[in-house]
Amino acid sequence: MRYVLMTLCAVALLAGLAELFADYYVEPTTRAYGELIDATIWNQDVVANVKSIYATTLNATVTNGDSHDHVGGDGAAIVENALGLTDNVTANASTSAHGLCPKGTNTGTAFLRDDLTWAAAAAGGVYNWLINGGMQVWQRGTTFNNITTPANSDDECLMDRWRLLSDGNNIVTVTQETSVVPTGGLYACTMNVTTADKKFGLVQIIERKNILALIQNGACSLSFKARMKAGGNATVDTLRAAVLAWNSTADTVTSDVVSAWNAEGADPTWAANWTAENTPSGLTLTDAYQTFEIENITLDTASTTNLAVVIWVDNTDGTVGDLVYVTDVQLETGATANAFARRGIQEELGLCKRYCEWFGGDAAYERFGIGWCDGTTTASCCVFYGAKRSAPTVGFSAAADFMMYTTGGLKTLTGISGSIISRTATQIAMTGLSSLTAGQAAEFSANNTTAARIKIEAEM
């Protein structure tokens, strides 16, 4: 800036000198030849002329010292010393104007975001400690109501890793949404009010082994996307969200984290040993997706062994047909929420299968394993699955959905159960068959239906 002013001054000085010479070096008719001009008069005239031209041409006033104002032009005056190497924000760049880079944090870990603010980078990049936050894995089905298995009951696991919470059963129908989704996403969870005037929500409980980095850091940030139906709901318009800490036996938690839902505008009473790590506030929904961020949550409950994320509707005057969409739920380490980190379906499904794995539904007569005949009316089979976090429970759809195939033909059964259950395999016992030959090999499969299901569950 100073070099520009010096150049302008030099140009103005030369212009003034030229004009001065033109004034004093005149034809003889005006001034006598050889007339000497007094040096003092010459100097005074030059200085006065230069000052006059400089002030008129540049519209600027030079003052002593290094600090001066730059006035004129389209912008307001800026004092030059305000642009010096001092701790201020004058002339910083913003989302609406060019300018200087904001002063750094000197932490060595922060980065400059596109809103021209400094933010802490998550160690090792952004990692979402929630599983299936993008709502893409639904092994148990894609619609849950009061006649499905599982049903839309309170404290029921529906889409993978998420439990429905509701003030009673059959409060909302839950479906996987594939049309009304945020930009860049494919899926959402839709909750459709079927019983009026009740609160409801979702919870995911995080395994002890997966919270160590969060607890070590001491802070976390929660973010998610949500909206209501096009044109707006009749009454449901407010969500709340919380990170809960469990301070009892690790991985042996109370999955129904709500003890009492309480009035609108008040947080639920949490079940024993669950504590909210943040102070929830009302999050107002619109009929377009918004990203809600709850940043820099301090994790300070003593002896925390598990964490949970809860998102719930705060309204107690819900109207049948009101819709709430939720997706892209992320819990990350650190004080700042970042863009949702999407995983590939292979990785997401693999993570889900540590807690739940369902077989069946792909085809009639679908094969599940090779077994043997124990006697004339009983048979057994081993089914293997991905390693679960603990020994799972094993369930089945109706016995009539299954059959055994032997050299004697197709054999239906009337009873089926799991036994010798480990984290990676179970033996299945089948009863009510007929005309079997002990020791003979057999195939265990679905009957002529796509309804056959084997359910391996180790959810929290």
Descriptive overview:
This protein is mainly beta. It folds into three domains: 2-70, no CATH class; 143-352, Galactose-binding domain-like (Jelly Rolls); 356-457. It has four helices and 29 strands. The chain has helices at 2-24, 39-58, 212-217, 345-352; strands at 69-70, 78-79, 110-112, 118-120, 143-144, 156-157, 163-166, 172-177, 188-193, 200-206, 219-228, 238-246, 258-260, 269-270, 274-276, 283-284, 290-298, 306-313, 323-333, 356-359, 367-373, 379-384, 393-396, 402-406, 409-412, 415-419, 425-431, 441-446, 454-457. Strands 6, 7, 10, 12, 15, 16 and 18 form a seven-stranded antiparallel beta sheet that branches. Strand 6 (156-157) and strand 7 (163-166) form a beta hairpin. Helix 1 crosses helix 2 (39-58).
Compact description:
With 460 residues, the protein is mostly beta strands. It folds into three domains: 2-70, no CATH class; 143-352, Jelly Rolls (Sandwich), CATH 2.60.120; 356-457.
